[in-house]
Amino acid sequence: MARFTVPNILCFVRIFLCPFFVVAAARGFWKEAFILFCIAAVTDMVDGSIARIFKQKSNLGAFLDPMADKILMASAFITLAILRLIPFWLALVVFLRDLMIVIGLIIFKAKRIKLVYKPTFLSKMATFFQIFALVFALAPRGLSFLENNSTEHLGFFIKGFPVMLGGAFFFTLVTGLQYYQIGLRILRTGSYEN
User: Fold this and answer.
1) pLDDT of res. 117
2) Average confidence (pLDDT) per 10 residues, the chain, 194 residues
3) How far is CA 139 from CA 69, 70, 93, in A?
4) How far is 92 from 162, CA to CA, in rounded Å?
5) 44 within 8 A of 69, measured Cβ to Cβ
6) What's residue 74's pLDDT?
7) At what angle do helices 59-82 and 88-110 cross, to 10 degrees?
8) What is the pLDDT of residue 1?
9) In the prediction, which pLDDT does 2 show?
10) How far apart are CA 122 and CA 83, in angstroms?
């Protein structure tokens, strides 16, 4: 069946991994949390490419992919903010932007406005920086099992972390404003054009 395409299965895998990541992080199992998050992040990066290359796009996939992304990002940012690995203000910005998008989709559904999800370039940049902000936050603890672990060994992640935080904040904020404008345009015209 069309709904059991590889991209859709990867979306289900991403959703399935989220609670295990949260539990592992909450219990301080950093190696496991790091590996689980990286696997989930990889599924996010490859499912869209697989859908395009092998022509496996579907209506279910168009719904599942952004939903799986939002579940992963929300659970990861909230968990790491509670554990003080990510600033609370960044988690709040990410959560509020995604909440705004979900509320917008509910409004479109109620008004019976048919919407085909089309991620913008800026939203792809936001996802990139969000994912790597989380990877860089987890890496110093998640890679602590490596031999000869030192600040020098993990310097790349430590030094790059502020850059990823800044990029995640900037692009999340910009895309929040962008999607707000797009939502108003859809409500006025009943259509969406990138």
Assistant:
1) 67
2) 78 95 96 95 86 77 84 95 96 94 87 77 93 95 70 79 97 95 86 56
3) 20, 22, 22
4) 17
5) yes
6) 93
7) 150
8) 47
9) 53
10) 28
What is the structure's pLDDT at 178? Answer: 93
Tokens of 10: 């990867």
Residue with tokens 């990823």: 164
- The candidate with the shortest Cα–Cα distance to 55, out of 6, 18, 95, is 6
Other Cβ atoms closer than 10 A to 77: 27
